[in-house]
Amino acid sequence: MRALWNSFKIAFAMYSKIPMLRADWTKENMRYVMCFFPVIGAVTGALLYGWSFAAPFLSQGGILTSVGYVLIPIAVTGGIHLDGLLDTADALSSYQPMERKLEILKDSHAGAFAIIVGICYFLLSLGVWSELGQEQLLVLAAGFVLSRALSGFAVVTFPCAKNTGLVAMFSDAAQKTRVRVTMVFYLILCCGWVLAAQPVYGGALLLGAALTFAHYYHMAKKQFGGITGDLAGYFVQVCELVMAAAVLVVARVMG
User: Fold this and answer.
1) Spatial separation of the C-alpha atoms in residues 70 and 223, rounded to whole Å
2) What are 58-97's pLDDT values in tens digits?
3) Can you name the residues that pair with 160 across neighbouring β-strands?
4) 10 Å Cβ neighbour count for 55?
């Protein structure tokens, strides 16, 4: 039980900016970190849903509401997944051999392509969220759990690109079978929730997540030889945007 509690604290300390009690990053304490990764998504989704009720008192035009939808996930995570997106953008845009791409991922300096992709990502996110309404939020909030459940499943299932780094450390320390089963539980829970709440929007969200997950697997193996922490962050950010865009497309088709 103590190992579970410590894993919970490490998960929130690593993947969020939510204040958390300190825990030693020992192999025993890190066994179940991935099991609590989707809980951070649940917190993010709950905050977005709450913001949808609070924002109308602050903004009549809707822009501030959309900005909140875009920035709340970044505020919760501290931008750790966004950092992975930008590093991956630099690596992929280099068109260098695999070994050199892995070196670029470790480079702390942001290249031109990282900045370009970052600007485009925020503009596209703002555009998508500005077109979505509160009626889609029950499904979209669950997407933040779904993206992390898929990412956690990948950590204990996909090959790692290298034997060092956070993903390799968590993958090695994890009780892989138990973590995998836990991620499947989250996935089943998310699928059941979104399909029961809004079947059409939920189906679109699940399709977007599945396509992004397939892209993630093939891109990571082909370009990097496996996954890394940066690639995991890339997946979370892209998956969340694709899910929102998929729901928007279906909303427009239905409308």
Assistant:
1) 29
2) 776 678 889 999 999 999 999 999 999 999 999 998 888 8
3) 227
4) 17
* Distance, first Cα to last Cα, the chain: 50
In angstroms, the CA 252 to CA 135 distance is: 13
Cα 193 from chain centroid (whole Å): 18
Report the C-alpha gap between 167 and 154 in whole angstroms. 10
Calpha distance 227→154 (Å, rounded)? 8
User: Considering its fold, how many domains does the chain have in total?
Assistant: 1
**What crossing angle do the helices spanning 37-54 and 63-77 adopt, rounded to 10°?**
160
Structural domain of 80: 2-18+27-254
Q: Token pair of 132, please? A: 């979505």
Host H or E run for residue 10: helix 2-15
Q: Could you give the CA distance from residue 223 to residue 226 in angstroms, rounded to a whole number?
A: 8
The DSSP secondary structure of 126-178, one letter per residue, reads HHHHHT--GGGHHHHHHHHHHHHHHHHHHHTTSPBSSSSSHHHHHHHHS-HHH
SS3 assignment, position 102: helix
pTM above the 0.85 mark? yes
